[in-house]
Amino acid sequence: MSIRAAFALAALIGVAATAASAREVVPFEGRVSPGTIVIKTGERRLYYVRGDGTALRYRVAVGKPGKQWFGEARIDGKYVRPAWSPPDEVKRDNPRLPDVIPGGAPNNPMGARALTLDLDEYAIHGTNRPASIGTYASYGCIRMLNEDIVDLYDQVSVGTRVMVVP
Questions:
Q1: Which of 125, 143, 152, 153 is catalytic?
Q2: pLDDT in the model for residue 74
Q3: Contact 51, 122 (CB under 8 A)
Q4: Would you call 125 a catalytic residue per the annotation?
């Protein structure tokens, strides 16, 4: 194998490992029905509970202090490359934001997919700011890496239960 081929193979393996490490299967104990999404704000992790005592765990960004919420909601919509209209509170804090940012635009904070919730104006969505993942960054939405929201989007349906806990 040539040096060039070895470097190409190493780069390919590195990309695959990075994508695979964005989510992982972990043991999950708790009285939560399979198919439920549990977001542990303090951990900045989202768990998609499976029926075998495990969950898919994803790193997420959660609400900033004072912008967090806790409780239960349900997914009420699924959107691919959604347009985004800033909620009133976001618009007040950032008056220069346009009224609508088209889906797929590089400045659209919703990313590749969005799962809207039946609670206020919150969603679980991708991001155009991957460095924010693992932090307290939003106005209450749950941000995921785009490849992770695509993975989760494909597994859940409208009506899926979402629990947000400290």
A1: 125
A2: 98
A3: no
A4: yes
pLDDT in tens, 63-113: 999 999 999 999 999 999 999 999 999 999 999 999 999 999 999 999 999
Per-residue pLDDT tens digits for 113-139: 999 999 988 999 999 999 999 999 999
Q: In this structure, is the dihedral angle defined by the CA atoms of residues 92, 96, 97 and 100, taken in order, positive or negative?
A: positive
Exactly one of 141, 142, 152, 156 is catalytic; which is it? 141
What whole-number distance in Å separates Cα of residue 113 and Cα of residue 7?
33
> Which residue has 């393996």 as its token pair?
13
The predicted model gives 49-70 an average pLDDT of 96
- Cα 30 from Cα 21, distance rounded (Å): 24
Verify whether residue 89 is a known catalytic residue: no
Which positions ≥6 away from 78 have C-beta within 8 Å?
Answer: 113, 114, 115, 116, 153, 156, 157, 158
Amino acid symbol at 52:
D
Q: Taking the CA atoms of 48, 54, 58 and 60 in sequence, report the sign of the dihedral they define.
A: positive
CB atoms near residue 87 (< 10 Å): 14
Residue 90: strand, helix, or coil: helix
- The answer to whether residues 85 and 100 touch, using CB atoms and an 8 Å cutoff, is yes
